[in-house]
Design brief:
The chain has helices at residues 2-7, 16-37, 86-89, 91-102, 129-142, 150-165, 170-181; strands at 47-48, 62-63, 105-109, 112-116. Helix content is 34%, strand content 5%. The strands form two sheets. A two-stranded antiparallel sheet has the order 1-2. A two-stranded antiparallel ribbon has the order 3-4. Helix 4 (91-102) runs antiparallel to helix 7 (170-181) and helix 6 packs antiparallel against helix 7 (170-181). Strand 3 (105-109) and strand 4 form a beta hairpin. The chain is mainly alpha-helical. It is globular, with a radius of gyration of 25 Å.
């Protein structure tokens, strides 16, 4: 079901970094639906495929709090992650969503214990899964394109957080911190640089350019005014269209 949503919105290409984001989107929205439904027989959790016992030992297919627990998924972004199978390169986005929802460190949710690390060693304070899901959903439907990579996902989710809550909000800072904690890709214009620090340095004050002495302009000869002319007047009433996206959970959780 969630793959179907992606296929009619951002249409993320199912390979490279966009493929990892495609796969993560299915995990993220499936988890959001599961928590929203609050089914007593299958409480919401941050485990993927825990009911199908695909490993034959009762362990889930994937873990969102620490994706590497499955032995193959990646906790953090790095420059070669686009060459990894999309099911495992989904790890940093899943990790981002968990951190944005719940924060870092040890925690128990619906009887399941989690302990989410951070790549930069700094704590993350979560904003709750409803806000986290709304940010991801709106980024998917209004910011992501078919070729969005991790850098673009960071940019898109920050843009949405700014639109929804303001760039000085706790929600905006949490998005920044959650990406830093999962070693988000740097901004597209600086793809070769290291991920940004969580404590930005103040920008130095610019040094003003030296002033040039003013010179008095030479008086200009009076110009002969042109003959009067009549121009038709026109007016236009500008119109504007706006659109918005809202998170609306499906009525039943996905099975995959």
């Amino acid at each position: 079901m969630t793959h179907g949503l992606t296929s009619v919105t951002a249409r993320l290409v199912y390979s490279g970094e966009s493929g990892g984001l495609n796969e993560a989107t299915s995990d993220i929205l499936a988890a959001a639906v599961e928590f929203h439904e609050n089914n007593a027989a299958d409480k919401g959790d941050y485990l993927i495929g825990e009911k199908i016992d695909i490993n034959g030992n009762g362990t889930p297919l994937r873990y969102m709090d620490k994706p590497s627990r499955d032995g193959k998924s990646k906790d953090s972004w790095y420059s070669g992650i686009g060459s990894v199978d999309v099911h495992y390169s989904s790890g940093p986005a899943n990790h981002f969503f968990y951190l944005l929802s719940e924060g870092s460190g040890a925690k128990t949710v619906n009887g399941v214990s989690y302990d989410s690390p951070t790549a930069d060693g700094l704590p993350v304070t979560g904003i709750g899964r409803d806000k986290a899901a709304l940010i991801w959903f709106k980024a998917l439907t209004t910011k992501f394109t078919s070729t969005t990579n991790y850098a673009g996902a960071r940019t898109g989710t920050l843009a949405v957080a700014g639109e929804l809550y303001g760039t000085s909000s706790a929600e905006y800072k949490a998005v920044q911190d959650a990406w830093a904690a999962s070693r988000s890709a740097p901004a597209p214009a600086a793809a070769a640089a290291a991920p940004p620090s969580r404590t930005p340095r103040p920008s130095p004050s610019p040094t003003p350019a030296p002033r040039s002495p003013r010179t008095s302009p030479s008086p200009a000869a009076p110009a002969t005014p042109p003959p009067p002319s009549v121009s038709p007047s026109t007016s236009a009433t500008p119109g504007a269209a706006t659109s918005s996206s809202t998170w609306s959970a499906p009525t039943a959780p996905p099975t995959g």
